[in-house]
């Protein structure tokens, strides 16, 4: 039996991630591999740290990519900052807050939960009340941009409350980095993790992280060893720290890092404010088309992520069949709902390189055609025109 090379179809990725990868990033990843301790690669690492500080809008010294996906970035933050016996406040308003709770418990700590309805932001008043009721809490963890629902929480306010109670912050910024305003230093976020496959338009597999001096101090003064050897920042910093002399820790994913570097260069070229405005403008056009069809959004406009749109499914429609037809007939991927929202919403991503006029119009036109063919109760033939009015304005 002979095996053949795998040649994937050319899809348009408008789900919750991965998003379309910029061709410049794919080209960068195809460049010659060099050693992970090569002086040329060390210079690239140093440049990447500068670019990551720009992307995170931070002046923290430590900004680096973890050599694994966003979930490993999350785990890096928790295993380094949480010790057995600690009490951690975890805010849950979707899937990823639940993953934070799991991390806390696996570190041998106790999670105090603040829960909000899926599709709503984290309620700062509940956080304040929980911190008053539990004075032993040392750490507050929340999701800035909840990918399972498309809701964004007020990171600045949550951080202010946490710091008033002498707590450090862990923030999940996987979907917000490069797509929504994120000011890590100004807002006082202590440990932040993200992913490369959302608004940075890079391939999955790396997790940018950044840590405040206060977080580093806590890590360096732990009573117990970090439970993960691979993610122990006391060791990793021997490789990602400053200076030309690097201690071998692991073989970095060299070509993947070429890709991330290129995506950060592209973000710098566009300008982070411009990138955020582009995501917002394309969301406005998509929204006009979706609402013209007679569909609606789950998340209130005031706390809605422009890059992750949770759209209600019309009555009587087989939502999985719609997604299947979009994939097979239009090479277009959109996402399904998770948890309590499974079967109730589609998640339409407008992230990074995929956030453009062509994709908005393709998505609306394809959705209109498929739903009309399925005799769904929508207003047909008006979505694209409604979006075009926004683009023309």
Automatic annotation (TrEMBL):
GO terms for molecular function: alanine-glyoxylate transaminase activity; L-serine-pyruvate transaminase activity. Its cofactor is pyridoxal 5'-phosphate. It comes from the Bacteria. The modification N6-(pyridoxal phosphate)lysine is found at residue 198. Residues 74-337 form the Aminotransferase class V domain. Keywords: Aminotransferase, Pyridoxal phosphate, Transferase. Residues 1-21 are annotated as: Disordered. PROSITE patterns: AA_TRANSFER_CLASS_5. One of its GO terms (biological process) is glycine biosynthetic process, by transamination of glyoxylate. Substrate binds at residue 347. Gene3D superfamilies: Aspartate Aminotransferase, domain 1, Type I PLP-dependent aspartate aminotransferase-like (Major domain). InterPro entries: Aminotrans_V_dom, Aminotrans_V_PyrdxlP_BS, PyrdxlP-dep_Trfase, PyrdxlP-dep_Trfase_major, PyrdxlP-dep_Trfase_small, SP_NH2Trfase/AEP_transaminase. Belongs to the class-V pyridoxal-phosphate-dependent aminotransferase family. This is Alanine-glyoxylate aminotransferase. It comes from Thiogranum longum.
């Amino acid at each position: 039996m002979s095996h053949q090379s795998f040649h994937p179809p050319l899809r348009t990725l408008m789900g919750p991630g991965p998003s379309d990868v910029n061709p410049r990033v794919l080209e960068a990843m195809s460049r010659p591999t060099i050693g992970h301790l090569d002086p040329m690669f060390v210079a690239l690492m140093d440049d990447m740290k500068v670019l990551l500080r720009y992307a995170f809008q931070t002046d923290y010294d430590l900004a680096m990519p973890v050599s694994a996906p966003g979930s490993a970035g999350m785990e890096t933050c928790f295993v380094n900052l949480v010790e057995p016996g600690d009490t951690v406040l975890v805010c849950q308003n979707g899937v990823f807050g639940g993953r934070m709770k799991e991390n806390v418990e696996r570190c041998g700590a106790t999670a105090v939960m603040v829960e909000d309805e899926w599709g709503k932001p984290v309620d700062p008043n509940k956080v304040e009340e929980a911190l008053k009721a539990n004075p032993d809490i040392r750490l507050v963890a929340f999701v800035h941009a909840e990918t399972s629902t498309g809701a964004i929480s007020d990171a600045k306010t949550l951080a202010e409350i946490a710091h008033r109670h002498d707590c450090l912050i862990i923030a999940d910024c996987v979907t917000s980095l490069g797509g929504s305003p994120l000011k890590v230093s100004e807002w006082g976020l202590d440990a932040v993790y993200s992913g490369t496959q959302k608004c940075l338009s890079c391939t999955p597999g790396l997790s940018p992280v950044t840590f405040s001096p206060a977080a580093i101090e806590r890590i360096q003064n732990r009573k117990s060893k970090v439970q993960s050897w691979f993610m122990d920042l006391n060791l990793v910093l021997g490789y990602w720290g400053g200076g030309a002399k690097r201690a071998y820790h692991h073989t970095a994913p060299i070509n993947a890092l070429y890709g991330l570097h290129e995506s950060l260069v592209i973000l710098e070229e566009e300008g982070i404010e411009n990138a955020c405005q582009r995501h917002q403008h394309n969301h406005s056009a998509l929204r006009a088309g979706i609402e013209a069809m007679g569909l609606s959004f789950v998340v209130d406009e005031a706390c809605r992520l422009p890059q992750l749109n949770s759209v209600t499914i019309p009555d009587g429609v087989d939502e999985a069949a719609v997604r299947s037809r979009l994939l097979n007939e239009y090479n277009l991927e959109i996402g399904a709902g998770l948890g309590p929202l499974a079967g109730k919403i589609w998640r339409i991503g407008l992230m990074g390189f995929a956030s453009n006029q062509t994709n908005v119009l393709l998505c609306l036109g394809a959705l209109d055609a498929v739903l009309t063919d399925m005799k769904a109760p929508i207003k047909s033939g008006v979505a694209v025109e409604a979006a075009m009015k926004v683009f023309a304005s």
